[in-house]
Amino acid sequence: MADMVEDRTMVVPFVESYRDNLHAVVRTILLDFGRQDLLDDPDEVNGLVWDVALVIQERSHSWSSSGGALPWYWAARAIRSEVARLIGHAQAPLDIDSIEAARPALADAAAEADLDELALQYPVLGLLQEAIGMVASPRHAELHIEYQLQKCNGDPSPAQTVATMFATTPANVRQIDCRIRRRLRQLIYSDDRFAGLRGLEWFVLDQRQRSEPQPALS
What we know:
With 218 residues, this protein is mostly helical.
């Protein structure tokens, strides 16, 4: 915890060291809110583990080991409040067959980009891939990248397009994208290795997201 006060990148080893504890905290909160849909999704649980770690990190300067409480218990109220804000309301189970039948042609015809190959030509893309991989599960990283590419390609309904591709809802696509971009901004402004990503349009929030509280960077 003391390390996280001086170096924000220490949230990564913090998560690796206490992942099981943070998982238990997330699962308890999801159970309390009746969010079995999220409990059944390992990617969602893992994503929320990172959000919980960021809540603890932002308050780490006030925590003291002499107090006796473990960090996730000490910050329990703030953690619960943040998770509640992020998960929103329960969603009805999806009819996958209906989604597949209604898949728009745009989703089938979406241009495929080999980001690994492009990253060899453009180092900033390699840096972006590395950063995304640090804050998101592989599935959520793929969803996030696809959503951003659809927006760049001028898709008038990018969330709907990506939702059909990943068998989820447009609202969930936007929520996952927003959470990943928040974590990315936290990472790139606290780790100088990713300084080259600062200011990219990739991280610009839409008007609705700008009105929400932003992560502390100081």
